[in-house]
Amino acid sequence: MDAVLLVGSGETTLDIEYVTGFRAVDPVVCLCSEKKRWLVVPEMEFGRAETAGATRSVEVLTPARLGIRRNMQRRLSAWAGAVMKKAGVRTAVVPGWFPLGVARKLERSGLRLRIAQQDLFPGRAVKSQEEIRHITASQQAAVIAMRAAIRLIADAEIDGNAWLQQRGRRLTSEIVREHIMKVLLEHGCMGRDVIVAGGRQAADPHCMGEGPLRAHESIVIDIFPRHLVSGYWGDLTRTVVRGKASPELRRIYQAVRAAQTHALRTMRPGKSLTAPHRAAVETFASLGLVTNREAARPTGFIHGTGHGVGLAIHEAPSLGAVAGKLRAGHVVTVEPGWYDPDIGGVRIEDTVVMTRHGWRYLAPCEKRFEV
Q1: Are 157 and 242 a contacting pair, CB within 8 Å?
Q2: Which helix (H) or strand (E) holds 102?
Q3: pLDDT at residue 368 above 70?
């Protein structure tokens, strides 16, 4: 088996943190064989990296300790070449997003790189009990923040033009999002790109939302916090209406709830990763809701049913068209949605962990629609 070579920071190359326990602020180099890992870091990070990798068979090195000439000590290609030489490695597997400049310099020096055709560390998809505890902490923060956001919306007054009012001013996506982010910080998490999208904005799945919120329209709230200490994420979405939803919007909400329920019923170890998505799609079809991807603005269920959650907010496994089997220890979202540019959008999302016999919510959160 070829060694694996990684170059990047804690933001760009999460596999480094996964295999070494070290969250790099600046780019570092990591080399992994079957039995050992080498991590090359700047001199100022040596102590922190040694502490992080103490229980993971990680040998922490610096450019100076590798004997790299002073005028080359800032070059990642020099770090990578030196650590490969130290480990006696001539060929390494790299991810598809490996830095091109580093790759070309290594290859000119006679080293061989092979681009991986699959996940370098498939074990990341099956979470340990410690990882599940970390994700649960983030998910619990998401639940607390979601309740706070819905309470803020539910307490808003409705003026004569159907705008939501809070203390004499219009309630906006920005105000609700700021409230969510404050609550997350109080619980040790950081909110990033939190979605509070109302009305037609809710029909765009990743629209963050902006401006005043209206009554009687759907408001999609998607909270995905990252724990400041562990680095693990949570993910939770609810859709609410302040006031009274139209019959069509209520029909869509009930269909999305049914789609999630049916998707969850298919989930147990050994079952296909495609089964939850197929169940959601079939539920919408049975209720007479037809997806149209050919329209100028696509309408319907236009994304997968879920994704893995861990050190990345989106990681393996995917609940969609990807082959594979559900396994105990998978942590995944289940998030069907329905989007209509003329009406708005509805999405309901929970993060669950697969158990030996089925699944369980990491942090249950009630589902309320009209508030």
Answers
A1: no
A2: helix 100-108
A3: yes
CA gap 129, 110 in Å, rounded = 42
Tens of pLDDT, residues 172-184:
999 999 999 999 9
**β pairing state of 37-40 and 58-61:** parallel
pLDDT greater than 90 at residue 227: yes
Instruction: Give the pLDDT confidence score for residue 51 in this predicted structure.
Output: 94
For residues 72 and 347, give the distance between their C-alpha atoms in angstroms, rounded to a whole number.
Answer: 52
Domain coordinates in residue numbering, the chain? 3-120, 125-361
% of the chain at pLDDT higher than 90 = 94
Tell me how far the alpha carbon of residue 319 is from its chain's centroid.
13
∠ CA(340), CA(343), CA(346), 5° rounding? 65
- Whether residue 267 contacts residue 358, with contact meaning beta carbons closer than 8 Å, is answered with yes
The model's pLDDT over 113-158, given as tens digits with 9 standing for 90+, comes to: 999 999 999 999 999 999 999 999 999 999 999 999 999 999 999 9
Say whether domain 125-361 belongs to CATH 3.90.230.10: yes
CA–CA dist 292, 321 (Å, integer): 18
Give the helix, strand, coil percentages of the chain, each rounded to 5. 35, 25, 40
- DSSP labels, 242-280: SS---HHHHHHHHHHHHHHHHHHHT-STTSBTTHHHHHH
Reported confidence tier of residue 35, pLDDT bands at 50, 70, 90:
confident
CATH top-level class of 3-120:
alpha beta
Residue 297 contacts by C-beta under 8 Å, 6 or more apart in sequence?
203, 341
What sign for the dihedral angle of Cα 56, 138, 273, 365? positive
CA distances 278 to 54, 178, 265, 282, 317, Å, are 44, 36, 12, 6, 16
Mean pLDDT over 216-231 rounds to: 98
Residue 200 DSSP one-character state: G
Bridge partners of residue 214, in order along the sequence: 163
Residue 130 CA to residue 313 CA, distance in Å, equals: 17
State the pTM of this model: 0.95
